[in-house]
Amino acid sequence: MDKKILEKRAERLRELMIHEDMDVLVAISPENVLYSTGAYIITQRSLRDRLEISIIPKDGDAVFVVCGIEESLARDESWIEDIRPYVEFKQSPIKFLADVLAEKGLDRKKVGIELHYLSSTFYKELIGYLPNTKFHECRGIFDKVRMIKEPQEIELLAQAAKASRKAVDAAFLTARPKDTERHLSTEIMTNLMKQGLDWSFMVLGTGRRTMLTHSTPSNIPMEPGDIIRVDFGGILSGYQSDLARTAVIGKPSTVQADTFKKLANIQREVIESMEIGVRFCDVYNKCKELFEKNHLPFSMPHIGHGLGVDLHEHPIINPLNEEELQENMIINVEPLVIYGGYAYHIEDLIQITPNGPKILTESEMSEEIPVIS
């Protein structure tokens, strides 16, 4: 990502620091390190003890503490010039963090840090070095900045969303009854990777397994008459995709076709209602009312979420969220219903614009259930 854009992003973080009366922000999670530095260090997601830490003061230069083996990548991708590598297993990244805070006089200031992510072991180590420093949760600051997407972010998310939709559409066209769940999931993810995305997650189940919230694909064959539900995503330059689709194996029954049609129309009406200034709780309640109007059971705690460097970002479409929709929020809308022994699930990505919601998956939004035959 362009380093000038990243510098402007840091300024937005600093503006919120002033508003929240914070003197420094310390990011430790993979998502906020990527967001605040621009460096996509993939090992940070799987090797949780290999910390990468961005330190952004309200005043003065930022510092990026990285594992030594990631130094070259950090220097290539990050806008931060002061990069301090530590030797893994020999030196402590938390000690490096404490030293930076003390060096800059920030150990006597109000320090915002990701307490929700920092392990208790690392936190105990940190306060051992800085017993008089007051640490405060800074998650809300990152949430507020990240919920409004920049043009480059929107482009990445749209590209990933379209690739995901094409991947599943193509897999449904080539799939046949009696293929296994695992075969179909492999086809979807292969199609996705051919378009330049990395694999992120795959939820897929047929028949009664559609009702398992996060079923992993198995070697069970897809039987004629069954519903299949897939919810999956990939990663493009650190940004997520998240898409859900429902199909039927062979000719759908009247109930299956009617249930899907109702759900598709509900999703369309909910999306159409998502104008700038509308409250998220009102979007949720509209969805609930549409379920009731269509005589479908409704039990979802949320019907959608923000998307970006993380899979579920702020804001969430739930009944308690009284925030209003704003321009360039990027939201997944995903109504799901369990009916007649199956779960039906549709999920698409939209952008909030002054001209109304824009569907970034470029889906046809058909009310007819896809058929695998």
UniProtKB/TrEMBL annotation:
<dbReference type="InterPro" id="IPR000994">
    <property type="entry name" value="Pept_M24"/>
</dbReference>
<feature type="domain" description="Peptidase M24">
    <location>
        <begin position="156"/>
        <end position="353"/>
    </location>
</feature>
<protein>
    <submittedName>
        <fullName>Xaa-Pro peptidase family protein</fullName>
    </submittedName>
</protein>
<feature type="domain" description="Creatinase N-terminal">
    <location>
        <begin position="9"/>
        <end position="148"/>
    </location>
</feature>
<dbReference type="InterPro" id="IPR050659">
    <property type="entry name" value="Peptidase_M24B"/>
</dbReference>
<dbReference type="Pfam" id="PF00557">
    <property type="entry name" value="Peptidase_M24"/>
</dbReference>
<dbReference type="InterPro" id="IPR036005">
    <property type="entry name" value="Creatinase/aminopeptidase-like"/>
</dbReference>
<dbReference type="InterPro" id="IPR029149">
    <property type="entry name" value="Creatin/AminoP/Spt16_N"/>
</dbReference>
<dbReference type="InterPro" id="IPR000587">
    <property type="entry name" value="Creatinase_N"/>
</dbReference>
<dbReference type="Pfam" id="PF01321">
    <property type="entry name" value="Creatinase_N"/>
</dbReference>
